[in-house]
Amino acid sequence: MAKIFYQEDCNLSLLEGKTIAVIGYGSQGHAHALNAKESGCNVIIGLYEGSKSWAKAEAQGFEVYTAAEAAKKADIIMILINDEKQAALYKESIEPNLEEGNMLMFAHGFAIHFNQIIAPKNVDVVMIAPKGPGHTVRSQYQEGKGVPCLIAVSQDATGKAHDMGLAYALAIGGARAGVLQTTFREETETDLFGEQAVLCGGVTALMKCGFETLVEAGYEPESAYFECIHEMKLIVDLIFESGFEGMRYSISNTAEYGDYITGPKIITDETKKAMKQVLSDIQQGVFARNWLLENQVGCPNFKATRRREATHQLEEVGTELRKLYSWNDSNKLIDN
Ligand SMILES: NC(=O)C1=CN([C@@H]2O[C@H](COP(=O)(O)OP(=O)(O)OC[C@H]3O[C@@H](n4cnc5c(N)ncnc54)[C@H](OP(=O)(O)O)[C@@H]3O)[C@@H](O)[C@H]2O)C=CC1
Ligand SMILES: CC[C@](O)(C(C)=O)C(=O)O
Ligand SMILES: [Mg+2]
Ligand SMILES: [Mg+2]
User: Fold this and answer.
1) pLDDT along the chain (336 residues), means of 10
2) In contact, 288 and 114? CB cutoff 8 Å
3) Total structural domains within the chain
4) Mutate which of 150, 199, 282 to test ligand 2's pocket (most atoms within 8 Å of Cβ)?
5) Which of 101, 239, 294, 307 has the smallest C-beta neighbourhood within 10 Å, fewest atoms?
6) What range does the domain containing 322 cover?
7) Which residues participate in Mg(2+) 2 binding (predicted)?
8) Is residue 250 part of a domain?
């Protein structure tokens, strides 16, 4: 059983007198920075000249510097820029400004695990990886709660890396929910597998396939959207609260019977075989190599797929339908 740390295991005062540079002000960056600031930490932001987030971070009360300047001023440097850009940023702006005893931090292990960044031996290297999107890390903190985090230490130069990491996890709210001990390898491989096979790739492919099946059979796209996409959240909320059993308690017996007999026809032994191949490609570094190569040539496939997906019929239908939800501030994440 993995060890889990809670608020009482964390000492926020370890961060007193320390300057935290959050490099990047996107999904995770804005959440870590605002949460840590509101927890009483001294936080500055590191960006690049021309960043669309520079003015936003200043408007939200931060001193903003280039990544190099921020790294020079800081004791703790949390790298929250895109994984695929971290190696270049590190070489150019972080490495020349590292001092003995600094703590280099990550929210995902990609760059360290796949040897994109090799830190000097005299700094701590720690990961605090929230198990949720950055906007949720922020909204949960504002509600007095937190998103669970993973902690991993790959270098402990100061002898305090673990405790400092826990203090950071408390500062961003994660320790309110729980902080699980792990390693950079385990976090990287499980996170990549989860987002590709299940959470993002798997779920959207399943929903899209269901939507297309109904529309191609002549049903209204709006009905297909409600059934295969909108209602997913409501079902997942029940699973989040009380597991598969709780969800199955809440749905009808008819739905539960259909769940048991149809699920295994959709997700088959072939699916598991495909998942094992996906995991193997992640473990062998094949996925990381392909992703980094795609970036080296300017992401043509990635950008083309993003454009194609954005124009799928389900997005048009969804945009219109979501305007009808009285509680929904339509597309608020994308608009921000
Ligand atoms: N998204 C999530 O919820 C999760 C992400 N993570 C990890 O967190 C890290 C950050 O990801 P995420 O928050 O999604 O990233 P985003 O794409 O949301 O934000 C990246 C930020 O980095 C800035 N940036 C890009 N290049 C540079 C540069 N060269 N110098 C300085 N700043 C730069 C961007 O600037 P601009 O605003 O101008 O574009 C932006 O503010 C990754 O390691 C990711 O794996 C971990 C858990 C969940
Ligand atoms: C599920 C996607 C994620 O791993 C996350 C929000 O945790 C990510 O990389 O964004
Ligand atoms: Mg994740
Ligand atoms: Mg991830």
Assistant:
1) 96 98 98 98 98 98 98 98 98 98 98 98 98 97 98 98 98 98 98 98 98 98 97 97 98 98 98 98 98 98 98 96 76 57
2) yes
3) 2
4) 199
5) 307
6) 200-267+299-335
7) 191, 227, 231
8) yes
